Amino acid sequence: MSGIEEVEKFIKNIQKELKKSEMIAVKIVKGERLNSEEKKFIKEKYPDLRQVAKESEKEVKELKHEIKNLKSEEQKQQAISKAINNIKLMNKKGILSEAQTRIKMSGIEEVEKFIKNIQKELKKSEIIAIKMIKSEKLTIEEKNLINEKYPELRHEVEKYIKKSNSLKEQLKLCKNEEERQQIVSKEIKNIENMSSKGIISESELKINMAAIEEAVIFIKDSKLEINKEERENDKGKLLKFIINPYFYVGTVSDNLSSIFIIIAIITIIYLFL
């Protein structure tokens, strides 16, 4: 019985050490700092797990770099799925032990956290960029965020503003609403096409759309101002006529004709007002 108890005790110690070594290996994968005791323990007792952890740490960095350069969320998820399938396949073939597989999978979890953080940061930068395009005032937090984390964002936004201004000029030169609609539709289709091909990210798609929207709103506001000015001018002319109607008909020699002209103008005044 004492022999069996010794074996059981030995197994428990092995399991305990394995669990400890696994935890240390996961810390290596996550890039966390090890203390001197942890370094010595995994190096001397579980060099194989240490090696797997080091390999996984390198793979995580490479996968993060790859994902950071991918445009669409679909592409990012495909990269994650491919990495997971490779780990499962190596486990199935016996290349990786269960402990090694768990260590590798902890690296995938780290990459997934990285993707979520990227999404949060992209959302913030997207909101700031759109506000800048629309010339809206930024909060102190948003200004600090640009200066600390997104110093290149100002340069990127300048490109979108130039694009919006260029579109404004094109729309100004249009003869009618149909021409304006054709130009805007073409621009939107071009951006959507780039997004579907993965040339631009979903965030860039939204910012591009905001730049187009800003140009369209500007043209509409300009038209309203022109129409308002024309209406004001018309009202001014009508006011002059009310004050001195004979100013407009003084050149007409026939009194009857003058009366008809006055009646016609009064009718126009009524319709305008």
Tell me what the structure shows.
This protein has 273 residues and is an all-alpha fold. The protein is 84% helix and 0% strand. It has 11 helices and no strands. It starts with a helix and ends with a helix.
- Helices and strands, in order, run as HHHHHHHHHHH
Fraction in helix: over 70%
Radius of gyration: 36 Å
- So how many helices? 11
Measure the end-to-end span: 110 Å
- Which parts are unreliable, with pLDDT below 50 for 5 consecutive residues or more? 224-230, 234-254, 268-272
> Which strand-content bin applies to the residues?
under 5%
Q: How is the main sheet built?
A: none
* Shape annotation: elongated
Mean pLDDT: 80
Number of strands: 0
Structural class: mainly alpha
